Automatic annotation (TrEMBL):
The keyword DNA-binding applies. Gene3D superfamilies: 3.30.450.40, Winged helix-like DNA-binding domain superfamily/Winged helix DNA-binding domain. Residues 77-262 form the IclR-ED domain. This is IclR family transcriptional regulator. It comes from the Bacteria. GO terms for molecular function: DNA binding; DNA-binding transcription factor activity. Keywords: DNA-binding, Transcription, Transcription regulation. Residues 14-76 form the HTH iclR-type domain. GO terms for biological process: negative regulation of DNA-templated transcription.
């Protein structure tokens, strides 16, 4: 850095912002979090200024305290913010034409969700053809614990990310509580199978077929669900097995897209 660049850097210093960024960058490297004293020592800062900055980062949900209250670690807020950025827009743009083709061929609706601050957010939705169907409203929030989308999202995360998601979890209206051991067992089965197919816990007559969209590390960056409705009249609509095959093919294409983008 030459003298002119150094002068510019000094002129535009923002000490409070620097402290906050220093804390975030430090915590990003820590698997088990740090105590306030450890953060103060590692950053060579005054204890009172670290305390004030940590309190603000916790209040703004960028940092979370441990259950015992003595350790601090990053929340998933930065992760969520990154997924609202242009790469997520590119994913939506890539997914929508495929979702439309799926809806036309399978004659079912589908919706795409991402993790956002304790539950799931619907970022894309396509209706199936015909005069009736099942759809989830764009922009609505979906439960993390009791839905196919939520369980698939949890199943394809690292242990650390899953713990953070569950720690940040906020219930949506009507969300059913589930025993943690049962949830862990379900996530393990989903990960082994590669997808979820089961009757909806929100609506009678709907079977959720759900697949993860995987990033380069093999963790779910988004989840696609078809709330399958079985016809009982004389019309021979595509079966749920056929819909699952179509959905798997679409997901594989989207997951490859993410790897290329990375």
């Amino acid at each position: 850095m030459d003298q002119e660049e150094k002068d510019d850097a000094d002129r535009y210093r923002a000490p409070a912002l620097d402290k906050g960024l220093d804390i975030l960058e430090l915590l990003a490297e820590q698997r088990d979090g740090l105590t306030r004293a450890e953060i103060t020592k590692l950053l060579n800062r005054n204890a009172s200024e670290i305390y004030r900055m940590l309190e603000r980062l916790v209040a703004r949900q960028y940092v979370v305290r441990s259950a015992s209250g003595d350790r601090y670690s990053l929340s998933l807020k930065l992760y969520a913010l990154a997924h609202r950025h242009p790469p997520m827009s590119r994913l939506i743009a890539e997914a929508l034409p495929r979702m439309q083709r799926f809806a036309d061929v399978a004659e079912q609706s589908c919706h795409l969700v991402v993790y956002d601050r304790g539950n799931l957010l619907v970022i894309a939705q396509v209706d199936g053809p015909g005069s009736w169907g099942m759809s989830v409203r764009l922009g609505s929030r979906v439960g993390l614990i009791d839905t196919g989308s939520g369980r698939v999202m949890l199943a394809f995360q690292s242990d650390e990310q899953r713990e953070q998601m569950l720690a940040e979890h906020t219930k949506v209206k009507g969300e059913v509580t589930i025993d943690r051991a049962a949830l862990d067992a379900t996530c393990a089965k989903i990960h082994q199978a590669g997808f979820w197919q089961k009757d909806s816990q929100q609506t009678f007559g709907v079977t959720d077929v759900t697949f993860p969209i995987l990033g380069p590390s093999g963790q779910a960056i988004a989840v696609l669900t078809c709330p399958y409705l079985r016809r009982i009249d004389e019309y021979a609509a595509p079966t749920i097995e056929a819909a699952a095959v179509l959905l798997r093919e679409m997901i594989e294409g989207l997951s490859m897209f993410r790897e290329v983008e990375a």
